[in-house]
Amino acid sequence: MNRILDPGNSYRQLHGLPALAGIASIPDAISRNALSVEAVVSRLKRFHYALKRLHRIFNDPITSEPIYELKMAFSLHAHLCAEHVAALGGRVAEMREPPLGLDKVPHPALEIAFDEIQAAPRAERLAAAYGIAIPMLIEAMERHRAETNPLADHPTCRAPLRPARTRRPARLRSRRTPLPHRRRKACGDGGLARPRPRLGRGGRRAGWLRRGNADARRAAALFRQALCL
What we know:
Blueprint: H1 2-5, H2 26-31, H3 37-59, H4 68-95, H5 108-119, H6 122-147, H7 154-158, H8 170-173, E1 184-185, E2 194-195, H9 213-226
Antiparallel strand pairs: 1-2
Helix pairs in contact: 3-4, 3-5, 3-6, 5-6, 5-9, 6-9
């Protein structure tokens, strides 16, 4: 076993069989520093909270949504969020003794950002959820998968952090839709595209969603700060 785990040893699998049951290569498992249990739990709690709030954002308007196709899309996306909430909660329970603290807000910036989204009018709420919150959450999950040790933290990488690529409903991708996520520009930090809001006149807008592109950047900055990006 020492021969296998020796970084200076050029280990070759017998008959080409995958090492470490195919979870990771031996050099990768050895060279990548493992995050502490506390660090992993802290990140998972933030993902858990974000998905819990997204579930509410998708679930609450289902009964009042007049368009059948959007009603079905919101139902599916709320279900996917609930599945990930359960998986992340189960993973935290494996690494921590009760009380788990999953009912607490893990970072104040997350609470502020989701409160703003929840209070926004319908169009801006959906644009912020699909155009800012979900892409930033997926980016944070993928970064965690890249940084954590694939062997030591395999249960996290295997299931809870394989987010489904949620597609916006076709109506929200239409060229005629007034939603702000239509106009996007590439950003210098990691190539993540962010929305360029184009809000209509009149009506009340909530917080930073009311004031245009500068506040969309602030929203993304809040998520980036809260999700350890």
